[in-house]
Structure formats: structure tokens, C-alpha cells
Amino acid sequence: MSIFVDENTKVVYQGLTGSQGRYYGLLNREYGTQVVAGTNPKKAGEDIEGIPIFATVGDAVAATGANASCIFIPAPGVKAAVMDAAEGGVEFIVVITEGVPAHDEAWFYNRLKRDFPGVQLLGPNCPGIISPGRCNIGITAGHIAKPGGPVGIVSRSGTLTYQALYELQQKGIGVTTCVGIGGDPVPGTTFIDCLERFEADPETKAIMMFGEIGGSAEEEAAAFIQAHVTKPVVSYIAGVTAPPGKKMGHAGAIISGGKGTADAKMDALRAAGVKVGLNPTEAGELMAGIVAGL
Amino acid sequence: MDLFEYQGKLFFSRYGIPISAGEVAFTVDEAVAAAERLGCPVVVKAQVLTGGRGKAGGVKVANSVDEVRTHAGNILGLDIKGHVVGRLWIEQASDIAREYYASFTLDRSAKQHLGMLSAQGGVDIEEVAATDPDAIAKIHVDPVEGLTEARCREWVAAANLDPEAVQGAVDILVKLYEAYVDGDADLCEINPLILTTDGVVKALDAKVTVDANAVFRHPDYEEYDAIQHRDERETAAHDKGLQYVGLDGTVGIIANGAGLAMSTVDIVSQVGGTPANFLDIGGGANADVMAGALEVINNDPKVQSIFINIFGGITKGEEVANGIIAALGRVQIDAPIVIRLDGTNAELGRELLQPHLSETLQMQPTMIEAARTAVALAEGTK
């Protein structure tokens, strides 16, 4: 089994008519994802290589049965796009767009929680989600992921996620689902959301979690692992040598007021029984050892 | 993006938050003219994007225009923790009865806004939080619900401010929340929020950080971008649209993706080297971006070797290799380079790079080996 998505997931791409949306939407379809629709109020009735365009997500859902959306809309339009998706009736919304204002993120996160509690938001500023062989929504290169399991991956960083997928593939290890939760201050899906689902997923036997400096999501995940996760977890935290007060590329990757350091996160994870690698390769090797012993 | 105190105060005053009358001055003469208009006593305050101004001699009360001249002369050009004072804020002095603390910021764990209010102001709030956490009254505000005056009043009551400050504090906090949300601020902090001897509550300081991602809603924020504290290398990178953070070491780093770039900085340190920078060129790694990144690194005199760490995902190995080769043809690089190229079609990419390899352009198959080679080259041992 996979988490959040599977081969039955039908996806509408908001922004399919833009260059990024078109490029990745078509790549995702080529991978085997059910890319059923796109949206653009000015181009309703047209199509992108056979994928019909609708004015709103609601129209797309009514016509195609879409149950997920993927947003490639530029940052100023993301807040409205997220609400269009939720009001349109999809259950899973993936926001790839980076550079969304933090106040918008905080607002639509809480609006969804209050008025659309059944909707799961992933992102913004994330690479998306891939369940190898079944569904790929977002910008992950599908061919670097080996289908089948037994590992579930969750990560704040895109390229480190790819690195993790690739290292496991090179070792012949498959992945049930790989979720990129993104590096922004208010991620729609957290480590804990993914850990909870991986723990419940019978096909996932071990979990790989890649974090980075900033915030306290890793510490909260460590407490959750301690209390609720029985499956082995391997982790890596990027930014051990990052200076305080500087944003390391991601809006959320910043050490402020002495909080959010990699050392504190690694200590919390180790205390929860997590095996922590000091670089992505080491984390891959630790995971290979665990998989060999399963 | 951080604002100077006076920019923060002017921002607050646009939302009706009371501040002392003041003027910005870039020269001693401007400071004197401002003081003449405002009337002494005034406070001469260094405008720098760092704390500890008072201790460094950057804040002085002047009882006469002559004193303004002396203080302004001393403070302009003063180096406060690496920030050289280029402008002053001259404001009417206040008779302070009590000092409080107030702020709004985002609580990432709660995913809601967090207001903090304390009767113990004028000191480091982190210190208060550590030694006397009960002295800080906290309130979580749901961004969708907003902050009502009634809730604000309960919050102020919980903070035990002096009775004569309550109404003024409630007024200010309602406006501060409005400024924080409407202005897309990451932080709005007033420390101290003061009660004057004649019963007025006002913002005596302003610490405001606004979200660079929200500039599309606030075109006037461009002026704040220009004042951000960056070294020469960071300025050059910023002008090229690159995500760059300057560090002190000798190994220049170029990687694609923020996580991989951070990881590269880490691994260089782990094998005993010192990273010169964090530089994320994003997903693509085409020739233009690569050439720009190499120029920035090449202009750092401390750099003794360069580590290019690229993982090809959607962007294929051969495209990355061609990008690197084209960039190297455009920029004259002084330091030796080590490339680690992995991911999609990495083999093809490596084959393309093969004929270009030399003593000064090396390739290693893994991150750790590439890091070791780059560190050895930086130290002149290879």
C-alpha cells in the first residue's frame, strides 16, 4: 500500500497551461499518473495534449471525478488556488509553488482545518509525492525510485529526497511512498502526518526521515516516534554547520534565537531510538542494514 | 527582510500606533537641523540591523543642539558588530515610567500567530522567557479568526500591566496585529513599549521583519531589500538571483537544491575542511546559472578549491555536464574544481566531462570522496 495517493488517484493540475505546469503535468502522465484535467478560467474548453482544461477545480471534479489537485500557479495566486481546490471537492492538494507568503500559508492551512477538515494539503514549496509505479504528483524524477517497498520516505528537502530515493534504488531497495513536505514555515503535511500513516501501512516496514535546520518539526517528530512508531526509523538532518540567523535557501531553514539547530534535532531523534546518519549516504547505508535484517 | 528602527516606527505609525516625533538623518548637519525642529532634549539613535546598540554607544540623549552635534559625529561611522552606522534617528526624548514588551510572530509548531506581552520590558525577552516564563502572557491567534478587541483585553489583563496602561496597550496591540498581518511581517516587536510619566503608552523601539516573499503585495518593500546586511559576495550573488550565504572557509560550494547545498557544506566540514559559502543554484544547473555561480565563488579571495555537487533528477546528467563545460568556457576560474555528478544519466554526463579533466578539474563519484578531494586541494596537499 501507499500513503495519500495510489493508482486510483485522479489529479487535476491547476496551472497546467503554464510552462512548469505543462512540463511536469505531462511528465507525470507519462509516468502513469492519472492526469485527468487542468484548470485555467481563460482557457476552459481547450486541452493540453488531450487533457481537458476547465475554469475551476469544481468543474473538473464534476466532469472527470478528480480527487486530487496539483498546483503550479505562481505564488500570488496560490491562496485562491488552494481554496478553489478545496471548494471544488478534492481531498488531496499538492502545492509545488515556492515563494508563497507565510501569512497566506498560515491562513489557508487554518481555513482548511476549520472548513475542510477532510482535505490534506501537501506543501507549499515541495517536490510533491511519489508512490513508485503507481502515482507521481510533482517534480520528482520517477525513474530514480524503485517500486515495491519496504521503505517509506518523508523529507523537507527536494534534492535530498532524490538523493535518498537514488541511493536506495542503487542498493536495490524499493519505496512504498516518498513524500516531500517542503521547506516552508507552515507545511500542510508534517513529518508526524506521514509517520502516522507509514506506521499504519502494512507494506512499509521501515521509515527514512530527512530533516533540516529551523523550527521544531523534527523534535516533535522524535516525540511522536518515541510514543507511537514501532517501525525502525533512519534520519539525516542537513545544516549542522549552518550559521545562526541566515536562511539556508528554504524559507523555513533558519536557526533563530539559538533554536532549530541540527544538533538539537539529532539528539532528540537519537533519544527516540532513531538511527541518525551524518550524511545522506550514511543514512542510506543504515537503511540498507535495516532492510537486510527485515 | 529586517527594517531599521525608524522604518519600523514609520510602518507602525501608518497603522495608528503612537511613536515619538522624530526624523531620520544621514549627516551631522541633518541631525542638528532635525533636533532644532524637534526641540531638545532628543535621543540620537544609531540605525543598524543588529542588537546591542546602547552598549556599543549607539544611543545617546542630547540636552542641547551642541550635544546633538557631538553625539551624531561620534555615532555616524561607528562599527556595531560589523554594522557601520550610516543613518541616525533623532527623536524627542520620553519620560519613561514603565517599560513593557509586546510582539507578534508566527508560531511554526502551532501554525498560528503568537502574541507575547510582558510587564518586564526593555530587556532581552529570551532572558525573561528563560528565567521567568510566567512573566510573559502569550496568546495564539488563528489567522482566519483574527484578533478581537475583547480577546486582546483579556490578554492585556493576563500580563498585569499597570492599570493606567491598559487602555493604551489594548489600542496598540489591536493595531499591531493589524500591521503584522496587513504588512506581511514575520516579526513585529516593540521593546520597550512604554508608559510615560504623563500616562501615554507608545512604542519606544521597533523591530520589524517583513516577508520577502510578499513583496508582490508591497512594492514599497524594495527599499528594505537595499538595506539588508550583506557582504560583497552576498551582494553579488543576490544581484544574480542566487541563494547564497557567505561563510569563512576556503572550499567554495555550488550545489543544486537547498537541502543538498546544506548537506554539502556539512560534509566539507565533516572531512576536516572549511566551507566558504552555501550556494544553491536550484534545480536546473544550466550554463548561465552555473557561470554566474562560478563568478561569485571566483571573486571570493579566500577560496582555494571549488566543489560542484549536482544531483540530476529531471535535469539529466548530460545537460548538467554541458552546462558546466559551457560555464567553464566563459569564466576564468583560478581555483581547482572537483565535480561530483550523480543521478539521472550520470554516466553520460561523466563521459562528457572526461576529456576536460585535468589537475585543476577533477571528478569524484561520491559526495564524500569529492569533499575529501576538494579539502585536500584547498589545503594544497593534493
Protein described:
By secondary structure, chain A is an alpha/beta fold. Chain A has nine helices and 14 strands. In chain A, the strands form two sheets. In chain A, strands 3-4-2-1-5-6-7 form a seven-stranded mixed β-sheet, with helices on both faces. In chain A, helix 2 (57-64) packs parallel to helix 3 (78-88), helix 3 runs parallel beside helix 4 (102-115) and helix 5 (158-170) crosses helix 9 (280-292). The longest helix of chain A is centred in the middle third of the chain and has 14 residues, at 102-115. Chain A is globular, with a radius of gyration of 18 Å. The mean pLDDT of chain A is 95. Chain B is of the alpha+beta class and 382 residues long. Chain B has three domains: 21-92, ATP-grasp fold, A domain (Dna Ligase, domain 1, 2-Layer Sandwich); 96-223, D-amino Acid Aminotransferase, Chain A, domain 1 (2-Layer Sandwich), CATH 3.30.470.20; 232-378, Rossmann fold, CATH 3.40.50. Chain B is 36% helix and 25% strand. Chain B is built from 13 helices and 18 strands. In chain B, strands 7, 8, 9, 10, 11 and 12 form a six-stranded antiparallel β-sheet that branches. A four-stranded antiparallel β-sheet of chain B has the order 1-6-2-3, covered by helices on one side. Chain B has a four-stranded parallel β-sheet with strand order 14-16-17-18, sandwiched between helices. In chain B, helix 11 links the parallel strand 16 (305-312) and strand 17 (337-343). In chain B, helix 5 (149-158) packs across helix 6. The longest helix of chain B is centred in the middle third of the chain and has 17 residues, at 166-182. In chain B, 47% of the residues are buried. The model of chain B has no long low-confidence stretch (mean pLDDT 94).
